[in-house]
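Changelog note: in this version the structure field was regenerated for every chain. One regenerated record is shown below for reference.
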Amino acid sequence: MSKTKLRVFPAISRNINSARYIDELMRAARFSDRNGLAGILLFAGNDTLVEPWSIAQHILAHTAESSPLIAVNPIYMHPFTAAKFVSSLALLYHRKIYLNMITGTAASDPHGLGEKLSHQDRYTRLSEFIHIVRQLLASTRPVNFNGKFYTTNNLQLRPGLPPALMPEFLIAGQSDDAHRVAKQMGCLMMQMLPPNLEEGLNGPGVNFGIFAREERDEARREAKLFFQDSAEKRELLKYTMENTDSVWKRRLNDAGKNDELHENGYWLLPFLTYQADCPYLVGSYAEIGAKLRRFVEMNVSTIILDVVADEHELDHVGKALASSGLF
C-alpha cells in the first residue's frame, strides 16, 4: 500500500480545572505538530472554559503547522463573524482552518440562551450559516441571501480568501437532519466507530479513541486499569443523557448494554463511565496501525481521535499511529 495522508484531529476531554485544561490542549497541539497530524479539535458550548476561537489563535501562534478544527454553533455568532475570524486567522498565520459544525448537544445550552428552535430548524439554520460563510469567503462580489434565519444585503468580506486557505466543514451529528445538511452543503460526514469496525464504516470520517501498548494483552490489561468502572461515573453519564437530544450519544448509550472489551478491540466502557465521548480501540501498536490502514482502504480520510493528554499516553498513541505507515 502506498503511503497515504490521513487527517487526524486529537480531541481531549473537557476539564473543569482551567489551568489543566489549557495545558492539556497545548500538549495535544504540540503532539499533533510533532507527529504530522492535521490539528486539534476545539469544543464549543456554554460550559467550555475557553472560547474556541481564542484558543485556536493561541495554538496557531505556538505551533508550526497545526490547523485547528473549531466547533461552530450558530447560536453563538452570526455567519459574518465566523467568516471574519476564518479570514483573520488565515491572514495572520497563513494556515487553513477546519470547522466542525454543530447545533449543540446539551439541552440546557440553548435553554439558557432563550432559544426554542426545534431540532430540524436548528439544522436548517446551520445549513444557511454554512452557505453564507462559504459565499463570504469565496465570492468577490457582495453576498445577498434571504433565508428562514438569515438575510444579507450586499454583504462583503474583505479581503477575499485564497482557495488554498478555504475552510473545510465537518458535521458530526448522526440524525436524519444532520445527514440532510451534510449532503446538501457538501460537508464531510463524521460517524462514531462502529462495533464491527471497518465493516460498519459508511463515510469519510470516524471518531474514536486509541489505547495502545507494545503487546495486545498489555494494552487490554492497562486499559481496564486506566478506565475503571464505577456507579458514580455511570450516574454522571445518566445525568448528561437526560440533558441531550444528541442522536449519536443516545445510540452509543443504547449500544452500551455490553460493556465488555470486544475481541476486535472495540470498547464502550470509557463512554459509559463518562470518561470519553466516543468508543475506544484497544490493541497493540501493530494491530491499531493495521486497522488504520484498513480504514483508509475503506475511504476514511479524517479521524477525530480522543486522547488522554499526558505525555506517557500520547507517546503510546504516537507509536500506534506511526506503525500504520500513514504519517
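Spot check on this record: The chain has a mean pLDDT of 90. The two ends are 13 Å apart (CA to CA).
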